[in-house]
Amino acid sequence: MTVDEAFNAIDTEPVPPPKSRARRSAVMRWLLTDRIALLILLLVVLLVWFHLLSVGDYLLAPFSASYLAGYLAYFVPIFLLAVGEAFVIIGGRGGIDLSVGGTVSLVSIVFGYEYAFWHWPLWLAIVAAVAGGAVLGAVNGLLIGIMRIPALIATLATSYAYTALALTTHNSAPIATTRIQDLTSMTRSVSLPLIGGPLPTVPLQMLTVFLPTAVIAWFLLHRSTYGRRLYALGTNETAARFAAISVGRVRFTAYVLSGAIAGLVAVVTVAQFASATTDAGTSGAGMTLPAITVAVLGGVAISGGVGGVGGVALAALLVTWLNAGILLLFNNEQSSKLQLFALGGLLLLAALLNVFISRFARRIRS
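^ thats the sequence. predicted structure below, dont judge the formating
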């Protein structure tokens, strides 16, 4: 080989990228493919941004730790409904539950009757509320899992039905008796046990509702036979059938769980607002759109087979504290409109992220 040929061979060899650039690329790939890491980063950015606005006196009130801890009362219902949506979406075949808002409204008013007018014991009224939500979810499961009606059509129809039943009950008037108002004690702020110190108090439902539900949902999705069947069904329904998985039964159960969780949310909502209203889950922007947004933002793939409780919890926290910051940044009229805008933007961002991640995964496999 001559000297010129040697130099030409050196020139044609690929130059490896600098280590710093390779590290940056690896970090970007990690953030885009690990939804937990991305959500933690977004949470940190959100908190730092609003903290700087608070220090600069751009907010109507301080963006303090106690304010954020108190706002966790709104985190609990949105997390619960998003977990219910996660069950039905993970099951695949376009699974979605548009009736959760109507379910919350209907169960809220029925719970009000049971506890305020019929004087049932509180524990029995709560059990009946969860069971009533499960029955409403079973209607969806029957239509979708057994009769194979598309989920969008079936849950849209039941959403209209449940909302209409709630609005026509009790002459569309709220139930706000003294017995109902006393339920606010279920949502009082408490100190964290065994920790103490300077940490702010948190709403009681974080300990009595959020933690037990999160643990049960995590176990069902990630450690139970049912969870493995649900993921298998969402990943490849044909393969699941060949594996002798009862597709209809698994999908039916997912909607029952979604309805039961919505029934629990009805109890939390009644206690939080000291009133059982006929539009508890449908007033304003409703509860359905935020629940779906949080589920998808938390990494639940709309095509099914992907998602987890941890991502949903972080996404619910992100949405909750984003709404809390917007409420301090603008007046009440503007903040409600911008909260809707932010919710739609987050839903679009989550959908784009899921599309990008699926394409990235296919490129890696190929």
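The longest helix spans residues 332-365.
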